[in-house]
Write a structure and sequence with these properties.
By secondary structure, this protein is of the alpha/beta class. 38% of the residues lie in helices and 15% in strands. 45% of the residues are buried.
């Protein structure tokens, strides 16, 4: 298993991370992802560790905390062998303060996650979303206090806009506080918006990408094809409207390219899609999910080999879209703007 630096930090993380959105199935939304119980989760952790995947990602809202509980049971007795990544900020409770990144909520959220996970520290704690109502000084100061207390070791964010992240980094730098070293982002062959603003920012500020939904909200599994209905078992039946919209013809164009590359490499479509991500700038780790052991084994097969430059170019071309302003304009001035995005 390849390990990479997490942004500008000294922490090395495996290029694949197991996501626990399928653990527990405690709510209708997460039941559509999976209902992995403790025994099944323990077996998945076994397989991951055998393959060198030592990082596991969760969140307090996954199945209303049940995912963290299942993960905590699955790693029991081997805490020092793993890295735990989890998240907080979204509403978790009915009270007025049970949401956001206030000192009140973040402190309680971290304590709750520690208890459910059965651990004394969280290796990477990420803000699940931006809180525009709480001053950035309060947010980053609280995270710094939690780091100094040893309850979290590294901090990151998720789903931030460019200005959200840059403002947070500026506040940390001004006060000498712990800064974000990771940004958990949606990024896939059918969702390349990350490249426009957030990737150049990450390159400049040394923030590692922790990629969520690398298979495009379940659309790049190889089971969705032109002229065919959705497979009977697909989270898209319940959650398609909650994810990023993808025009049908664009999806089919990308899947056709994946098909061609898969035939050339002898790999599965999901493995090709994951391997493409692992060759993108700033990507520290890609979060894979699995409903069962077989799906996990397939996703683990995305490493240990690399697409050729020609195959990468084929996928780049198939997934290319028209950039929004000012990004299309910036591409013409690469001499003074080396981080300007180029989608191949």
């Amino acid at each position: 298993m390849e390990f990479r630096q997490l942004g500008g930090s000294g922490l090395k993380v495996p290029v694949l991370t197991l996501g626990t959105g399928t653990f527990g199935g405690g709510t209708k939304f997460f039941k559509a992802w999976g209902e992995t119980n403790v025994a099944e989760a323990t077996r998945m952790v076994d397989l991951c560790l055998e393959s060198g995947v030592t990082m596991f990602d969760s969140a307090d809202i996954y199945s209303d905390g049940l995912a963290e509980e299942v993960l905590g049971q699955a790693i029991k007795g081997r805490r020092d062998e793993v890295l735990i990544s989890t998240k907080g900020t979204f509403r978790h409770g009915k009270g007025a303060n049970d949401v956001g990144s206030s000192r009140w909520h973040l402190t309680r959220a971290v304590e709750g996650s520690l208890k459910r996970l059965g651990t004394d520290r969280i290796d990477l704690y990420q803000l699940h979303g931006f809180d525009a109502l709480t001053p950035a000084e309060e947010v980053m100061g609280t995270l710094d206090d939690l780091v100094r207390a040893g309850k979290i070791l590294y901090v990151g964010c998720s789903n931030f806009s460019g200005w959200h992240l840059m403002k947070s980094l500026a506040v940390s730098d001004r006060h000498g506080w712990t800064r974000h070293v990771a940004h958990q982002v949606y990024y896939s062959l059918i969702g390349r918006d990350y490249e426009w603003e957030l990737m150049p920012l990450a390159l400049d500020q040394k923030v590692g990408a922790v990629v969520w939904s690398p298979l495009g909200w379940g659309r790049l599994t190889g089971k969705i094809r032109r002229g065919q209905p959705l497979p009977k078992t697909s989270r898209l039946h319940e959650t398609a409207q909650l994810g990023p919209p993808v025009p049908d013809e664009y999806l089919y164009r990308v899947v056709d390219a994946l098909d061609a590359v898969a035939r050339e490499t002898g790999k599965l479509i999901p493995q090709v899609a994951l391997n493409w991500l692992l060759q993108r700038p700033t990507v520290s780790t890609v979060i894979i999910g699995a409903r069962d052991e077989e799906q996990l084994k397939q996703n683990l097969g995305a490493v240990g080999w690399n697409l050729t430059p020609e195959q990468v170019a084929t996928l780049d071309a198939a997934s290319k879209v028209t950039l929004a302003y000012p990004y299309w304009h910036q591409k013409g001035f690469a001499e003074r703007n080396p981080f300007a995005v180029d989608q191949g």
